[in-house]
Amino acid sequence: MRINVKYSITSALLIGAIFTSSDSLAWGQNGHRVVGKIAESHITDTTKSAIKPFLAGESLAQVSTWPDEMRSNPGKFWQKQSSRWHYINASPNKSFTINHDHTNNKESVSNILEGIHYSIKTLKDKNSSLDAKQFSLRFLVHLVGDSHQPFHAGRSEDRGGNRIKVSFFGQDTNLHSLWDTKLVENENLSFTEYAQFINTNNSELIAEYLESTPTTWIEESHNLANALYKSTNEEVGYSYVYKNTPIVKTRLLQAGVRLAGLLNALFDPSAKELETALKKVSM
């Protein structure tokens, strides 16, 4: 099923957000590839043709891990600036928004929401270079996935759960890593199998997922993180997996569907009802 559902991209007000560096990656390689693979099954043929030059022969699943892989690049951007693209932290009950002045160049981006909006603006700009659009598409695929990992909207004081030690079936890890990698890998599935198992063609569910904004995704993750801080004990085992794996699957599915909806909104001219919503990104 191809997604062509009304999709809005707006933002709320940010009050007192606190930014820190994050020690772990979101979803790990398999999780990000699941998101990309699901999105591939929902983008239109028009969108596929439009993004082909920006993928340089790769798939959405393949490019989904690129921003994490590039962290070993010695360049200033990757060593000093890129990490803050991947997350946003705030105190409980705070709302999130974008400083649009920060979305004019990649060096100014200070959090994941601004990174998403920078990428959207670059991809919309007819004057953007091919390199800039390739960079932005790869980052956008990755950041939509990151925005659905609860602890990329967690607390600054524990670095999104990185400083909270837990034991997963006797193996030492931390709360962030538990969610970005352990709970996904515990299914013992390849990313293609995982994507196939959780994907959906339920039009009502897809429409529900698309009635959202990047800010919504972050708020959802933030609320989940707050609940998980309270409900996660130091020892994690079967009951925790049983309770929380469905949440992991839902977040991965939502990310894939929403990524497809966003790409269709950007690149499929037939989705004319989306034009007004997309213009709001550049405000």
Automatic annotation (TrEMBL):
Keyword Signal listed: yes
Signal sequence segment: 1-26
Keywords, sorted A to Z: Disulfide bond, Endonuclease, Glycoprotein, Hydrolase, Metal-binding, Nuclease, Signal
Pfam families: S1-P1_nuclease
Record-linked InterPro entries: PLipase_C/P1_nuclease_dom_sf, S1/P1nuclease
Lineage top rank: taxon: Bacteria
UniProt protein name: S1/P1 nuclease
Originating species: Pseudoalteromonas marina
